[in-house]
Amino acid sequence: MPKKEDNRMYRDLSWTWPIISPPEDYADEASQFIKAIEKHSKIPVKTLLNLGCGGGHNDFHLKKRFQVTGIDISKGMLNNARKLNPNVTYLTGDMRSARLRKKFDSVIIADAIMYMLSEKDMLAAFKTAYFHLKPGGIFCTYVEELPEKFARTTTTRELKRKDDMEITLIEHMWDPDTKDMTFELTFIYIITENQKAIVEVDRHTCGIFPLATWKKLIKEAGFTVRTSRSKDEGAEIFFICLKSEI
Ligand SMILES: C[S@@+](CC[C@H](N)C(=O)[O-])C[C@H]1O[C@@H](n2cnc3c(N)ncnc32)[C@H](O)[C@@H]1O
Predict the structure, then answer these.
(1) Ligand 1, CB within 6 Å, residue ranges
(2) Residue with CA at minimum distance from ligand 1 atom 19
(3) 11 alpha carbon to ligand 1 midpoint, in Å?
(4) Partners of 241 in the β-ladder
(5) What are the strands, taking DSSP E only, across 67-181?
(6) Rounded to an integer, what distance in angstroms lies between the CA atom of residue 156 and that of residue 175?
(7) Cβ distance 72 to 81 under 8 Å?
(8) Separation CA 31–CA 33 (nearest Å)
């Protein structure tokens, strides 16, 4: 049962997304996707489906190269995405179950895959990617946190500004139970404007799976998979997943 403090970044606090994680910050990540797709795809790539597209900050860069369609579960994030990328098609949907009529040359899941909290959910998301690909199509994703490397508690702080508003964002990542497949991510926002400071708390539960589980589930969805060390800061392993041409 979701609590009042859960996932506020994608609900009542989604307006902060362009301030706390601006589109410019996604240039390197988007470029990693573009390079991998261009290098490894077996078919010419014109179309791309972004599952868990959020505020469209990756799409802001990807749309220069591909005809992008984005799916996200959050209406607030999709509103941000539509404002930023008016020519991109955005649809509300769940990456575990969305089924469009259209097939794509490429599919990506970026920093949304950590919301898959069980192997069943992860597999469902990979099957959604597989379902939407043309034969020979390519799916790329990456893992940010691996249990093998997870530091049990990490806290970071950032200050972001827009006009007269300042947002100090404290991010606290911890794993209360290292035996299960989840960890907790808590954000504290201190929003100052007009000589007032408002404090907001926002809690997220994220999935964390061993590398072997990722590979097993991607294969189970139907792909052949290749891994490489991620070139983007903050990500660990990048997955290049191919759907067979026949
Ligand atoms: C960190 S944001 C992604 C930001 C995005 N990369 C961007 O460019 O703005 C994570 C997103 O995952 C979405 N999400 C979480 N669970 C989802 C699900 N089951 N299906 C679709 N989207 C989901 C959230 O709504 C949120 O927008």
Answers:
(1) 10, 26, 52-58, 72-74, 77, 94-96, 110-112, 115
(2) 94
(3) 11
(4) 139, 225
(5) 67-72, 89-92, 104-109, 133-143, 153-162, 165-174
(6) 15
(7) yes
(8) 5
d(CA 155, CA 174): 9
All CATH 3.40.50.150 domain ranges in the chain, comma separated: 14-144+210-242
Protein fold of 14-144+210-242 = Rossmann fold (3.40.50)
Pairing of strands 182-193, 165-174: antiparallel
Query: Cα separation of 126 and 175, whole Å?
Result: 25
- pLDDT tens column, 61-96: 999 999 999 999 999 999 999 999 999 999 999 999
55 Cα to the center of ligand 1, angstroms = 8
Per-residue pLDDT tens digits for 157-192: 999 999 999 999 999 999 999 899 999 999 999 999
> Which of 6, 57, 77, 122 to mutate to test ligand 1, by most ligand atoms within 8 A of the CB atom?
77
Atom 13 (ligand 1): residue with closest C-alpha?
A: 52
Q: Which atom of ligand 1 is nearest to the CA of 58?
A: 8
What is the CATH number that goes with domain 153-207? 2.20.130
- The minimum-distance atom of ligand 1 relative to the CA of 121 is 19
Distance from Cα 246 to the centre of ligand 1, integer Å? 31
Q: Does the predicted model carry a pTM greater than 0.90? A: yes
The CATH 2.20.130 portion of the chain extends over 153-207
